[in-house]
């Protein structure tokens, strides 16, 4: 158990708390007075996402299966209900658009991530001492 005065817990708990905090921060206002309204949705999203450490979702490990969500229903091609078919078609279009945007973002990040500055000995460069413990020495 962690408390306000003893935040040190195991790394897994700290990582979970950080992930939930990041997820909730997106939806809360600057007053942070309604975060508890979004906690169930954030918990569901976390439990339905694959964990890097295990390769499984918490739902898979706990119940052996994923719960039904709109995305699992969208994997079905057709139903006997026209409105459901329209929903599935719309959902699949939205998923394709989202995947295309994610792919474009990954390509941009890869492009900028591969940009390296090089400096040769004798080149003058500016260094930030902001995150160091030693103040710059005057010559």
Automatic annotation (TrEMBL):
Q: Which domain of life is it from?
A: Eukaryota
One example of a Gene Ontology biological process annotation: DNA integration
**Matching PROSITE patterns:** INTEGRASE
Q: Which GO terms describe its cellular component?
A: nucleus
Q: Which SUPFAM superfamilies match?
A: Ribonuclease H-like (SSF53098)
GO MF, one annotated term: nucleic acid binding
Domain Integrase catalytic residue range list: 1-66
| Protein name listed in UniProt | 1815_t:CDS:1
Question: What organism, scientifically named, is this protein from?
Answer: Paraglomus brasilianum
